[in-house]
Every structure is written in structure tokens, then in C-alpha cells.
Amino acid sequence: MEHADEILAELAKLGETRTWEPGTAVVTEGEPADCMYIVHTGELRAVVTGDGGRTVELNTLRPGEFFGELMLSGGRRAATVEVTERARLTRVGRAEFERVLAARPDLALHLMQRLVQRVRTLTHTVGRLASVDVYGRLVGLFDALAVDEGGRRVVPGPLSQARIAERLGASKVMVNRLLQDLARGGYIEVSRTHIVLLRKLPPRW
User: Fold this and answer.
1) 56: which strand partners?
2) Which of 44, 88, 87, 42 is nearest to 67 (CA)?
3) Nearest Cα to 66, choosing from 110, 23, 106, 126?
């Protein structure tokens, strides 16, 4: 099978490419789904509205990824996708996408593999929200996002307290308290652009 990037590049030739500015909603939860999008540059986030109007962030979308493939079900958007960093996207309509799927079984297989991985990730996220306390979710989020940078474990940002709260399904006040406590304890170092994990976080707080 062709490399995933090559497959998406071929698919992108069928659509319309444009740039989206930060703060823009590309698709909105509940609206009819009639197209999908391929991410070339920038960053976006998928969010849903929970009980009481609280926003819960499901995941982050970066270059080489796509979203909106549930248009194949003919239903409505399951989440809102917002631009967090200026993004260049290609919009591919349902008819064009279905023609490619019929002609390219390798693309259909790739799509299925990506969807399975996405479902696994979301299942893990929902399970964690249901069974682990806020601190445990914070540790899990840091573990998932952290990268090695110059011998240090760093959670890249900017990642505001409000956005962390949305990812955890928690209040901003709770997140603020946990971050301050961890910083005072010498476990993390917080800046505007990133969070450094200075040492292994304790299993409970």
C-alpha cells in the first residue's frame, strides 16, 4: 500500500484548498455532514458540548490527519472542529470521496485503519473520564502529550488551563490548583509555551 501521505495527497487533488484562521469553526456539531477535510498545516481541535454546556476536547488534529469522514454515514457532525493554529485544509466532497474509495481499495483500507485507531483513542479517553479522578486524568494527558526534548520530558504548548480543563472534563479552578501544587512540589515547571516534567509524577495527589 502506498505511504499514507501519498494517499492523502492524491485525495487532496480532488478538493478545494484554503487557509483557515485561528478561532474559526471548520465544522459544527449537529450540522449535516457532506464533506471531509485533510490537514496540510496548522492545528485544530475536536470538541463536543457536554452536560451543562461544558466543552470537552476530544483530540488534536495536526498535518497529515483528516476529519469529517463520518459524512459517509449521511448523518450529522458528531463534534465541532476549531482551528487553534492557522491551518491549510482541503475540503473533499462526499461524491468525490466515494468515487476514490471505489477505485482505490488501498485508500479504503487505510481509512479503516485510521478509524479503528481513532475509536481506540476515544474509547480510552472516555473510559479514563469515567473511572479516574481529575489528577489521574492530568497524569494520563501529560503522558500522552509529552515528548523528549534535550533530555527532558516536555509537554509542548501553548496549552492553557482552560484547554487542559476541557481535555480532562474538569473545571479550570481544579486544573489551576493541581498545576500550582505540582509546581510547588518541584514536579513540573510551567511556562507560556510548554510544561516541563521535572520528575516522575506521583500516582496520587
Assistant:
1) 48
2) 44
3) 110
SS3 category, 183? helix
Indicate the SS3 state at residue 102. helix
Q: How many residues belong to the chain?
A: 205
Integer Cα distance of 47 and 198 in angstroms? 30
Helix-helix angle 161-168:172-184, to 10 degrees? 110
Sequence-separated (6 or more) residues with CB below 8 Å from residue 136? 128, 204
Backbone angles phi, psi at 39, to 5 degrees: -95, 120
Helix, strand, coil percent values for the chain (each to nearest 5):
40, 30, 25
Q: What is the rounded distance in angstroms from the CA atom of residue 36 to the CA atom of residue 92? A: 5
In order along its 205 residues, the chain shows pLDDT tens digits of 444 566 677 778 888 999 999 999 999 988 888 888 999 999 999 988 765 566 777 888 999 888 887 776 667 888 899 999 999 999 998 888 888 878 878 777 877 787 777 777 766 666 555 445 788 888 888 988 899 988 889 998 888 888 888 888 788 888 888 999 899 999 999 988 899 999 888 877 7
DSSP structure class, residue 172: H
Of 63, 98, 75, 64, the C-alpha closest to 27 is 75
DSSP for 68-89, please give it: -GGGGGT-B-SSEEEEEEEEEE
